[in-house]
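Bug #77: duplicate submission created two jobs. Keeping one. Sequence:
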Amino acid sequence: ISDTHTKSFLNEALSCFEAKNYRASVVLSWVGAISILYKHVIANHLQNFNIEAARRDPKWRPAKTADDLSRMKEKDFLNILQAISVLGKNVKQELDGCLALRNACGHPNSLIIGENRVAAHLEILILNVYSKYV
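Kept job's structure:
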C-alpha cells in the first residue's frame, strides 16, 4: 500500500487487533477500505458514479473529490458501486456484512466480538479492497 494515509489506517487497525482492541480494529480497517474505494471511484469511475447517484437521488450534487463522496451513506455508496460494476454481487454482499459489523462496533452497545470474527473481517477487506484497489 503506497498511499501513506491509507496505510496508516490499516497499520492502526492491525495494531488494535494485536492489542485485542477488536472493535477499534473493525472500525479503522473499514475506514481505510472505504477511503480506498473513494479514491478508486474518483480516479476511474467518477462520471458513471455521478450519473447513477443522480438517477437514484435527483438532489445528488456531482462529486468531484473523495470528501464529496462521503456525503452519501456508505450503504448507498456500495449499492452504486455494484450498479456500475465496480463491485460484483458477492463482494458487495461481503462488504455489506463488513459495514454492518463496523456500524455495530462504532456505537455503544453490548456486542462482544472475538479474534476470529475480526480476523475474518480483516481478511475480507484485505483480499477484496486493500489488495485489489491500491
